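In practice, a research group might receive sequence data for several interacting partners and want a quick structural hypothesis before committing to experiments. The following worked case mirrors that situation: the sequences arrive first, and a predicted assembly follows.
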Amino acid sequence: MAHRSGVSKSTVSRVINAEPGVRAEVAERVRGVIDQLGYVPNSAARQLVTRRNNAIAVVASQPQNRLFIDPFFDSHLRGIRKELVHHGAQPVLLFLEEPEEYPRVGDFLGGGHVDGALLFSLRADDPLPGMIERLGLPTVFGGRPLVREGERVRERVYVDADNRGGAREAVRHLVALGRRHIATITGPYDQEASAVDRLDGYRDVLLDDATPDLIERADYTRKGGADAMAALLDRRPDLDAVFVASDLMASGALQVLRERGRRVPEDVAVVGFDDLAPIAETTDPPLTTVHQDIEGMGRLMARLLFSRTGEPGEGRAAAVAEHPLSSVVTPTRLVLRASA
Amino acid sequence: MAHRSGVSKSTVSRVINAEPGVRAEVAERVRGVIDQLGYVPNSAARQLVTRRNNAIAVVASQPQNRLFIDPFFDSHLRGIRKELVHHGAQPVLLFLEEPEEYPRVGDFLGGGHVDGALLFSLRADDPLPGMIERLGLPTVFGGRPLVREGERVRERVYVDADNRGGAREAVRHLVALGRRHIATITGPYDQEASAVDRLDGYRDVLLDDATPDLIERADYTRKGGADAMAALLDRRPDLDAVFVASDLMASGALQVLRERGRRVPEDVAVVGFDDLAPIAETTDPPLTTVHQDIEGMGRLMARLLFSRTGEPGEGRAAAVAEHPLSSVVTPTRLVLRASA
DNA sequence: TTGAAAGCGCTAACAA
DNA sequence: TTGTTAGCGCTTTCAA
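A structural hypothesis for the assembly, expressed as tokens:
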């Protein structure tokens, strides 16, 4: 104990937490002793009483490598980190690949190491939201969580883009271009809400023209997009446009189109979704796509979380916002490049 | 408190920690109450007394996006996670981008949330190792940490590949092929030991033939490799081979070679380093490169760490291994493909 | 086989 | 402005 500086624990505690009511001279002396001893407060003890620790978990339940390949995640995480760090909170990343890992992650989350959690890339039947709800840990979701029919859950706060509206705009653009046979490559709509919403947007515009043979489901990967494009081309050689539900899939689709000798946009117009600069700007031709502010959504998630947990360092964790918080849907817009 | 199950705290504690000396019937009843209440032990309190918490920090002080693009990191992290999870420890990722983040990361690390740390991607002058040493947190480094001259540090345990030996083998292969003017594109040898070692291996073989105009420093990125290749070609149009210190840089170099009309391997033979499947197997032509067991190195790091901290759940954290631990250097081997 | 009591290192009331 | 006291929720002797 640094009380060898000649004062009581309380005073040391006050100095460490920069509380008022300590003579400057005493504070100075205490700080000296702290430095000299290399003293670091034991935060388990501190947390036991304050119920706070200025760390926020960022949990992704997805194969790590899918995450690492996906520029979407990179931007999203950047936004989250910026905002968290800006508020003085430490982001702690947890990946969740195997079912066996759930109990341990649950223990960590419930163990009071973090004040809140940011979750994303959840599968439809992921047990994590339920676990966290039971723990009572403040949480914000990235992307609207899919809730199974009949499942009773507390309201879940999320941040998402206007996927349906963005998809509508993309498809309307294709229609305005005079395209007659507009296909779509979707995301895994059995697993992710964004895939459902983008497909709904496509249907909103095309109505009865959206026949099943124009719709091919893929998995948000590049290869999945390529395979889906090939299948579509085999089935409907007459198609003259495709709305692809992600840029990564679109880059795969463009490659197949090129291999099959179809010119883009002359023969087939292509619109993507995401507007990920490293992809959309470098494809051949550059991709017309639906822009969403991914980094901004990440920041928003962090801000929403703080409005539930209270700012780091401010009072007890129990200080949850009184005004009920709602989810946020951010706007999208179509960015015209060369592919459509 | 779950003591409404009619027993004392002690007994509940025993049940939770699966300690012997509890009547099966009582244990059963307690477990029932626990489930029913959804009780999760507060690990801050537990940790305060046990000094353990079965979580290990994985710390990377690198711009997040460099990490996310680098398949090396992906494999490395996969190995680490596998081993950690296998031992029942929770991996906790911390990124470190801005200098302002160091104090907070230090607090988290020193705060007793984790039993040990795995560090990598450290810059030469990174303050992190020093900070952690002062905290007394058991640590293992990924890649030999560069120590500045005159700096006094405790011995640092690391896991690294035989970079120098691998480089030697690569360059010898080029020599055996009859190449006369063998250039090299290096990593940032002012920052990373692996870059230093690979350059040393190159020099070991070439001796006086390794003139400065054949050596070009880059930064382990694809673009850096491309730029370096261009500079080399401008300076030494007569070069007929290049040893490139990473696959990512090699892929950039190959592209420049192609653009400049040099055939590989006929005009210029190329050998890389890393043997990252997603790169080396898909370049045109496929890359001859030095293989290292990246995932295995990750696992090894975790194992070494456990030999310092003791296995998760086993006694107190203080139970550090008595036998002094040493660093490990894993072997490399040349994988022949088409580029050399 | 169980329970009672002490105490891990801190902060938060309350006294001085 | 400072010190004293009482816990935070757990594990761990020790005694029953």
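Before designing any experiment, note the following. Chain B has three domains: 2-41, 55-161+296-330, 163-293. Residues 1, 9-10, 13-14, 17, 41-50 of chain B lie near DNA strand D (CB under 10 Å from a C1').
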